Amino acid sequence: MATLKEKTVAEYVTENIKTAHIFKKHGIDFCCGGNISVEKACLKNNVNQLILKKELSEVDIVKDIIEDYDKWELDFLMIYIENVHHTYIKENLPLISQYANKVAKVHGHHYIEVTEVNMLFHEVANELIGHLQKEEQILFPFIKQLVIAKKEGSNTVTPPFGTVNNPIQMMEHEHENTGNVFKQIAKLTNNYMPPEGACNTFKALYAKLDEFEQDLHKHIHLENNILHSKALKLEQEINRQI
Fold first, then answer.
1. pLDDT, tens digit, for every residue of 201-218?
2. Half-sphere exposure of 206 toward its Cβ, with a 13 Å CA cutoff?
3. Cα–Cα distance between 241 and 145 in angstroms, integer?
4. 8 - beta bridge partners?
5. CB within 8 Å of 90: residues ≥ 6 apart
């Protein structure tokens, strides 16, 4: 069990994104709460370590090049995050909003949980819109400056917010809040399982919410565990040259 004791959940997923679904299946957070050892995560979530170790070892160890995010340059990683995950959020928020409003209006009197789901989703949707703007207009442009400074051997990067750690801490706090809201939504929807006899809109809402949360987990993992971590190290490296 040495590996499970020494290695964090985030490190497993960083090395092989395909392990993410194993942790998700067992209810282990690999995003905001991924910086604890797998052993501790098992104890916290009452997961059998032997079973988890076996499943992790059986994950296909041959990773697609496109999924080896840990080896990507930070500027390319940010382009990927914006084009894939930010675009996904922007395109799907309006659609899910329509589904949630309709299901709450039509079925809220009988399935009271969908009214709360509707409220929670719109709450987190509004927060996500502002969150993406802060990343695209403040954090990502500064990380790009750090990348350029490193390539050019410059040490004159002076952010208005003191250090890159300040916006990173804010972004990760918002990630945690968003993750907590989706945990509530997952619980209210019985892990996105529509009731028997549910109409197609009801089913579509739950399917989209499930898909959205899965994309969000991967999105947060790329930022918290790879982008932010490397940006902090890059800033420290540049500052040491001053």
1. 899 899 999 999 999 999
2. 18
3. 16
4. 37
5. 132
